[in-house]
Amino acid sequence: QVQLVESGGGLVQAGDSLSLTCAASGRTFSWYAMGWFRRAPGKEREFVASIRWSGYSTVYAAPVKGRFTISKDNAKNTVYLQMNSLKPDDTAVYYCAVQVAVGTEYAYWGQGTQVTVSS
Q1: What is the dihedral sign for C-alpha 101, 102, 105, 106?
Q2: Whole-number Cα distances in Å, 77 to 19, 55, 72, 100
Q3: Mean pLDDT of the chain
Q4: Residues in Cβ contact with 22 at an 8 Å cutoff, skipping those fewer than 6 apart
C-alpha cells in the first residue's frame, strides 16, 4: 500500500499564493505519475495537474494553466503544487493521487487538504 499525506492548505485572499505538498510513504516504487485533483462544494472531483514520475512531463487543467505549477522530488517521494493568483473559484479540497501505470486509474489517494480563497 501507498500512503499519501497532503499539507499546506489554508485560508487566503484572492490574488494570494499557496503551496501544497504531498508526501508518499509505504510501498513506494517508480509509478507512472502523480497528480493533483480538487473537489469544490457541490461539484464533481476534477483534475488539476499531473507530473510524470520519470522525467518532468506535466499536464494542467485549463482553469489553472499559467497560475499553478506542479513539481516533484523523487528522492523524497514528494509532489508539490504551487498555486499563484488564487481565485475564489479555486476553493476546494485538494487531493493528491498516484497513477501506477499509463492508461490506468489513479490507484492511491490522500485524505485531502482544504483550500479556501476569499474574495
Answers
A1: positive
A2: 17, 14, 8, 14
A3: 95
A4: 4, 5, 6, 7, 34, 36, 78, 79, 80, 81, 96, 110
pLDDT over threshold 80, residue 29:
no
Q: Alpha carbon of 111 to those of 4, 54, 75: distances in Å?
A: 8, 25, 22
d(CA 33, CA 74): 11
Length of the chain: 119
Q: Please list the residues that pair with 25 across neighbouring strands.
A: 3
Helix, strand, coil shares, percent, the chain, to 5 = 5, 55, 40
Tens digits of residue pLDDT in 93-113 = 999 999 999 999 999 999 999
Give residues with Cβ within 8 angstroms of 79, minimum separation 6. Answer: 21, 22, 24, 34, 36, 51, 70, 71, 72, 73, 96
Does the pLDDT of residue 118 top 90, yes or no?
yes
